[in-house]
Amino acid sequence: MIFAKPDIALLHPPSIYDFRRMTIVPSPISDLVPSTPVFEMYPIGFTYLGEYLERNGINTRVINLAQRMLESGKFNVPRFLSRIEPAAFGIDLHWLTHAQGALEVARVVKEVHPRVPVIMGGYSATFFHRELMDYPQVDYVLRGDSTEEPLRMLVEAIMQGGAMEDIPNLTWRDRNGGVVENPLTYCPASLDYLGNNYKYMIRSALKYGDWKSLRAFWNWWSYPITMVLTCRGCSHDCAFCGGSSSALSHFCGRAKPAFRAPEKIAYDVELLSKFTTAPIFILGDLLQGGKDYALETLEFISHIAPRNHIVMELFAPAPREYFDRVASSLEHFDFQFSPETHDEAIRESIGKPYGNDEMERSIAWSLDAGCEKFDIFFMIGLPGQTRDSVMESVEYCGMLLRKYGPRLNPSIGPLAPFIDPACCFYRDPDGYGYSLVHHTLDDHARASLSPHWRDLLGYETSLMTRQDIVDVTYEAMLALNAIKESNGLISPGHAAMNERRIHDSISLLKMVDDVLEISNPGLQANELEKLHGEAVKLSGQLYLPKEELMWPVTGSRFRRLNVLRILLDWV
Q: What is the dihedral of CA 359, 364, 366, 372, to 10 degrees?
């Protein structure tokens, strides 16, 4: 069977290119997201890029290299890439955790296809666009949070030999090797131009004969959770977030959020509910767009009557009537909320000026309305935090569980691995009590190769060193694990396995530190290799914290008959 040849291949790299052979102790950094420490889940923007380009006549193939490498130790990246001959490759450097992997994948691409240009984009690529041009394996960087049209223009220019000067948001090299920075002028105020990304993904699998490369994360086939985009940009200015209002204003030219039309959000929910019974995650707090926007979106979704669990975000406390409206619109609904700390003063200092009473009223109203799972997240490494402050947050989690019961699910983890470039913490570290350890893109890439996640941390605070943050993270995780067991949130068996996993991680990190004290590089490498098996064993237990975040699948995972009908309708 002959499949289409892509004009551009969009590659998602692993966080570390050689993760399969290196000895790296699994960290808790990815415990609160679906993906593993490889961070194999690609940004949803990839799918919109693919849909837009395909709609405009450019064959576009999305390839999750990270997932393919995670799936099989025998997957050979250079060999795989050698079979693909596009006019250009695109590599995302959206999250800074991919710094090493993105640069290395770009290098491999250049070895295999020396004449094919490499394009990078994403939040981190936008911030480090000038430094990226110092790497010979990177030819172009597209800046901003919405690059569909600039990428179309760039690919057409590459294919047809066109000029680069008029492509907005583009950083490139001229004939003399000088770096040219075109103005960042493309930042659409409306998202009406975005098409249906999930239709594109299914069509793409058929068009290029490759289902494996589209999988979002390690266990997606058994837990096919999907996501629905509501906006680009944010109305909030959380100091630690690289996607905050001030960060996007400074580096992406976005003065205010752009929202998708409520009927398009509802259409996505309808489409997804037709082929899967897994949870559907609504990205972004609907209330960001105002009360009327949120209620109109819920009204459209209510006519679909999905039986899936619809997971929604709260960026701030909400009024009782909002939860009542959600309940009247959805059969199954869940919420996620991130106060970061129990300490109201610290919370206000990081851009979240609401009190615990307000937050707890929202929790109560949500549960009273029928919320089946309310996830609440706390963070370690904030300004003003000490070891005692972190443990007080854990105690606060216990109080919330006793008060609201096991439908409430508290979690805690470190601000890691790096402070987001462009966020308030990054722009003004002294003002927030931070000392940045890594500054350049190369700093972050090199730090990723350390076997100890302490060395990945790109900061220290005035009150906690990087080792302090590591130590209190495990202390807090052990304490919260016991609290969850005693309050019936997790089973004794699960709690025991998770406790053992945490203790084994601590022990292995101590062994790694002993090895890192060895001055002889060859001997050090040999001793690290001896620990590789234990690190791999721990990696096999990463499902434990993720199970605590999972929502129910309301039936069989896929509605196979509906999938077949949809495919026949689209082909």
A: 120
Domain with CATH 3.80.30.20 in the chain: 224-547
393 contacts 412 by C-beta, under 8 angstroms: yes
Alpha helices in 376-417 (DSSP H): 387-404
* Full-model pTM: 0.95
Q: What 8-state DSSP symbol labels residue 135? A: S
Within 233-287, strands assigned E span 258-259, 280-283
CA angle 342, 347, 350 (to 5 degrees): 150
> For the purposes of burial, counting CB atoms within 10 Å of the CB of 506, is it exposed (0-12), middle (13-18) or buried (19 or more)?
middle
* Domain ranges in the chain with CATH number 3.40.50.2300: 8-181
The reply to whether CATH 3.30.70.360 applies to domain 224-547 is no
CB 377 within 8 A of CB 411: yes
Main-chain phi, psi angles of 143, to 5 degrees: -100, 155
Tokens of 558: 């896929």
- Does CATH number 3.40.50.300 belong to domain 8-181? no
Cβ atoms of residues 160 and 200 within 8 Å:
no
| pLDDT-above-90 percentage for the chain | 91
Give dist(CA 195, CA 208) in Å, integer.
20
Digit-coded pLDDT (tens) for 357-415: 999 999 999 999 999 999 999 999 999 999 999 999 999 999 999 999 999 999 999 99
DSSP letters, 165-227, are TT-TTEEEE-TTS-EEE-------S--TT---HHHHHHHHHHHHT-SGGG--STTTTTS--EE
Residues 156-215 pLDDT 10s: 999 999 999 999 999 999 999 999 999 999 999 999 999 999 999 989 988 999 989 999
Residue corresponding to tokens 């913490």 = 425
pLDDT score for 4: 86
